Amino acid sequence: MKHHFLCPNHRKELTNKPTMALRSWANTNEAGITLAGGGHHYDALPHLGCAFEVAEIILTENFVEQSKAITLLTESALTLSSSLKVLGYEEQRTSVLQLTLNRLNKVNNVRSLFVENLVRLEYALTMTNTLH
Hints:
Helices cover about 80% and strands about 0% of the residues. It has seven helices and no strands.
């Protein structure tokens, strides 16, 4: 992935410890959503970015069933992209959405099995491109 919110040591530790990765996703996602919900989108970015990156680790390492991992990654991407949009970081927002679509399209049978996740991401990406 192109966006880095985790340091290499933390990334390695989460890659080797599924329980820690799942707990990290839950904690960073909740903190980010809470901050963003309070209008503190800039402060939410590190948390939402970590949740996004950890969700990709969870999917890649098969820490949970594929459908749950895809949902975690999709939700993380949409939440992060929402805060990026509020802050006016359209290029980064588009990048997060495109990276997520590209990553999910590498999953076998993702198009037929998880079409609703892809449609949500594609719609968000289209909204970015049509608002200019």
